[in-house]
């Protein structure tokens, strides 16, 4: 294996997807920031969920908001639906794995909350079902995905579709967009000052 060639090719691929994402997602990103800020100002909360690496992203982003991002400031209401093993295993065992997120939304979701599903393919059945549940209950059903958007296209709005078919590159953009979301929410809520360029 030519590790030098591999190293360079991975960065080249990453940079291509970064440029395509930057060109494609400014408007949907602004829309996602807007619905999150509106919900939080009205006393709502953000519910993040996904599988595998996307579960890790859900936990990461909820923590950045509820604990702290760049600096100390008041807590922001955000929860990852991927962390309670008793809940996940009970729902998975008793009701089916496709309901592990939708059941939690049914339990704690409230009209005006924002449910943010994360799936690189847009086809994860439990993510799709949770977004359907959120929509039915009057939550904002939003998401991060890639490829062609899968079943999340037309269901989640706002929906950030990373313009790539490569899972690793999509995941890289999801965490980048997620970190940007955290920073923008803090600023829009007036909790931290906008950085000077």
Order of helices and strands: HHEHEHHEHEEH
CATH top level is Alpha Beta
Tell me the fraction of residues in β-strands, as a range.
5-15%
Number of domains: 1
Helix content: 40-55%
Q: How would you describe the overall organization of this protein?
A:
The protein is of the alpha/beta class and 197 residues long. The chain has one domain: Rossmann fold (3-Layer(aba) Sandwich). The longest helix is centred in the first third of the chain and has 22 residues, at 3-24. It has a 5-stranded parallel beta sheet with strand order 2-1-3-4-5. Helices cover 53% and strands 12% of the residues. Strand 1 (46-50), helix 3 and strand 2 (78-80) form a beta-alpha-beta unit. It contains 7 helices and 5 strands, in the order ααβαβααβαββα. The chain is globular and about 50 Å long. The chain starts with a helix and ends in a 9-residue tail after the last helix.
Topology:
Elements: H1 3-24, H2 26-41, E1 46-50, H3 53-66, E2 78-80, H4 85-94, H5 102-108, E3 114-118, H6 125-137, E4 140-146, E5 159-162, H7 167-188
Parallel strand pairs: 1-2, 1-3, 3-4, 4-5
Helix pairs in contact: 1-7, 2-7, 3-7, 5-6
